[in-house]
Amino acid sequence: MSADDWLADTRTSYDTVAESYSDFVRDALAGLPYLRAGLALFADLVGGDGPVVDVGCGPGHVTAHLRGLGVDVFGVDLSPAMIDLARREHPGIRFEVGSMTDLDLPDASVAGLLAFWSLIHVPDGEVPKVFDGFRRVLRPGAPLLIGFHVGDGSRLKTQGYGGHPMRVHVHRRRPDRVAGWLRDAGLTVEAELVLDRDQEVPGAILFARRPA
Length: 212
Hints:
By secondary structure, the protein is an alpha/beta fold. It has one domain: Rossmann fold (3-Layer(aba) Sandwich). The protein is built from six helices and nine strands. Strand 1, helix 3 and strand 2 form a beta-alpha-beta unit. Helix 1 packs parallel to helix 4 (80-89). It is globular and about 45 Å long.
């Protein structure tokens, strides 16, 4: 599958499920104390030093949570329908349509970068390019927080939120593999937390940093 194919499928799928997905995740963080703690630590690491980008922000629920923690944050997402929802639900926050495979941001322009479960549809062969782009836009010394599904292999998802049709591959990855890609991109991995370890599909978050 070419880059254009999987990007187009992902964009169309999330445009289709945007309203239902927004309803599904709107209050999700309330029941996820470890994720909230991770976001609070990320906000502390950023320390109010400048703009932070939430890459793959969806309807903006995590972006808004970070804003509530005092972070100067803006969101970027591939899906125009998601961005329309985010702008409507969080009118005080900047949201833009864009792709993590080609971030339209200047070099060394952000004081932090968040990618929360937005890499799960990116093919393995594209992840190194994405992480190179993350390093490029981060300021020296700036932190990065990545969240993803833990496991091995991929599955094709054809039905999504609200029963609407989707066509996206969902990739599960081991933390060591993701950490290796981050290191190959010139980023320093600082911490790892595995979530819901006893569930069928655990999650993980990795804290990394562009070296100063």
